[in-house]
Structures are given as structure tokens and as C-alpha cells.
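Hi all, a correction to my earlier message: I attached the wrong file for Deacetylase. Here's the right sequence:
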Amino acid sequence: MEKEKQVLVVFPHPDDEAFGVSGTIASYIESGTPVTYACLTLGEMGRNLGNPPFATRESLPKIRKKELQDAADSLGITDVRMLGLRDKTVEFEDDGELTDRISSLIQELTPSLIITFYPGYSVHPDHEATARAVVRAVEALPVNQQPKLQCVAFSNNCVAELGEPDIIHDITPVQDKKIAAMKAHRSQTEAMLATWAEKLEVEDPELLGWIQKERLWTYQWPEK
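and the right structure:
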């Protein structure tokens, strides 16, 4: 893992960070690199309300906000930006305004690395809209001022079209922090993590392999 000056993580939902890059985040923070997490929505349309249910549609935004902060605390993130967009509507935001919001963060923080989803390979419309906005914001910068852009991809065709990920972080030293971050988003993850409990107890190699290896692709700019 290369030394970075500042990392900016941009995802649309609470828990997007937990599954894909929470170990990477924790590793950067442990090495002394500041990490800012910009989360576009509070995930208030999340499909789960707890297991057994403890949230309602009305209470879920407040609960997920607290879960996001708890997850950030477990990873050591001290700078969380909640941008206040509405869940499942990011794709309908004005492209220019959304790009400007990302550009403002880049201008303020001057990150050496941005982590987001890979446009075209991240399945959910909010993921895709967020990824496109980040790409537009980075592309607008002079080439010599553009930060590195590393992306999470998980569509069925991502490996076939992008190739194998060129970045694989072994986050074994901080896997407890990653698991804590996933657990923090309990309204969405409790049922799933309950099914993992036995596998974690016996250190199931397939599950541990998925947890311990975080895969990213360096964004490939289209040829002009």
C-alpha cells in the first residue's frame, strides 16, 4: 500500500464503505494518512429495518446516520461528510451540481487518492451516478493535478471487461476493524452477519479470504 497524503472516499450509502474498503481505510489511518469519507445519502430507503425489526421508515434515517458514525469511529475516521442527498435519487440529481459538490471537496482536501465505485460496473443507480460525478470532477482538473482514482467494481461482467483487479490489499491486520464496521451498520447487516458467525468462529477460509482481500481497479481513462 503506497503512502498517501490524503485519501477521499466517496460513496452514496452508509455501509458502502464497510464491505468494500473499510480495511483499506483502517490501514491508511493506522499509517497516519488522513481519510475523509463523503457519504451522499443516509440510506433511508434501505431494504432492511433490523432483524428482528427495530426501525421504521420514519426512524431509519436517524438510525443509519448513527450507524454511519459508529462505523467511522470503529475505523478511526474523524472526518465524515454527510452530503444530505436522498437515497435512491442520486441518479436524478443535476449532473453539474453533483460534480461541483465533489469538486469542492477535492479543492478543499487536495487528496492524493480518491476511492469510489467504478462507473459502469457497480450495479446500483446511486453507485453509478456517484461514480460518474467523481470521474467528471477529477477529469475537470489539469492532468498534473489529478489524484489517483481507485474504484470498487462488483458487477458480473467487471472482471471480463476490466480484467483482474490491479490492486489487492491484504487487510488481515485490521480485519477486526472491518468486521466492527460491518456490524455497526446493524439495521442492514445483522441478519447476514448472524449467518457468518459460525464460519468466522471456525475461520472458514473462503469467507476470510473475501474479508481479508480488498480488490480495487485503477480507473482507466477512455482514449480520446
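Sorry for the mix-up. DSSP finds eight helices and seven strands in the chain.
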